[in-house]
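Researcher: Going back to the complex we discussed earlier. I've cleaned up the inputs and rechecked each line, so this should be the final set. Can you rerun the prediction on the complete assembly and write out the structure?
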Amino acid sequence: MEGRPLTESEWIERARRGDASAFEELVRQHQEIAFRTAYLVVGDADEARDAAQDGFLRAHAALGRFRPGAEFRPWLLRIVANVARNRRRSASRRADLALRAFRDAASGDAAPSPEVLLLAEERRSELLAAINRLQVEDRLIITLRWFLELNEEEMAGVLDCPRGTVKSRLSRATARLRSVLGEAGDD
Amino acid sequence: MIDDLRTLDERLLDLGTSIAFPPTPPLSAMVADRLRQPVRRWGTARPIGRGLALAVAATVLLVGIAAAFGLGLGGLRLTFGPASFSPAPSLLVGPGLGEPTSLGEAREHVQFALRVPELAELDDPDLVYLADPPAGGAATLLYGERAGFPPDSRTGIGLIVTQFRADIGPELFEKLIDSGVRVTATEVNSGAAWWIAGGVHFFFYRDATGRVVETTVRLASDTLIWEEDGVTHRVEGAPSLADAIRVAESLR
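Model: Rerun complete. Updated structure for the full complex:
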């Protein structure tokens, strides 16, 4: 037992018993995904920070209702997203997503040429520009799925819809993205 | 045109690794700070004149309003951070905040008998705000500095009184305990009341439709809360429980 890293369930149990440092550890483990989820919902870094913080505080207050053995991340993201959605209704700013200034070039023998890297960057820019032109709901579901790689349960929680609805909404959003890209509708 | 050799799925996954997300703030420290935050007391503040308090009321009162109630205030944002952060809160006013109004108009709008403290030192509220939702409306009376009610150093607010239709009960306060909040049972007009102090304050109540509402609003200071005739009342900013009860029992 001594020296063994605690499992998430053990951190949760400690936090449920009132161990503030255990909850702090849970926040540390999930703060990035929580913040990014909130950011994709509200589209503003300050709002996302506040939403994520509120979400964690709300989760702390609700730990007594968390079902032992359940997945913590979907539960947490649902709470954070709920706070973020409420904030989004009043948010007046929405920043477009942007690419990082420079991607780290791969190293080693297989490193692509600068021309190839430039071409790849142009294609990324084209795709991102298309995503930024989508309606908010389409853009959200696409970014949750591919940028944060949330699973269906997590997306359903963030979007506040049944899991079955996630698939159909994702399919429609992808079709619209293809349309913006000027592609044919099939793979 | 799409890259012939890669599916849209692969392109999107690749793109996800290139997105410039804003840096993740130190949420673990911020949340820990909020959970361990000591009680903030009124009265230790640097005194500021009533004129100044009122002059800046258009901005600073929002802290108090948010502290007073949370439902439907979608247009308001409070930025909280650890003590090392800039103390200046970021405030936004939006359409969900409610509207500044007069006492008379507030009385006409809300679906309950709006009452006002009748203490000699309070006189009329400096500002009245009306929000809807919650169902039935919510009225907030704001007072700047008054004798015996020193202004908060950050907000300039001496006292806040909020009323809205809702149902509260002791079972709803159980959820507060884990947040480091102290809830003390007391009485207002011989009816049950609670004095909420310390920690991160969450607020739970049943709204006029019977739904339990859980807000994430954190109160700016200790608060007396009670229900009378189906109306939830909150008095915030009084320097002591005795003062808060005095205000509460003067409502007419």
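Model: Worth noting: Residues 1 and 7 of chain A are 12 Å apart (CA to CA).
Researcher: Good, that matches what I expected from the previous run.
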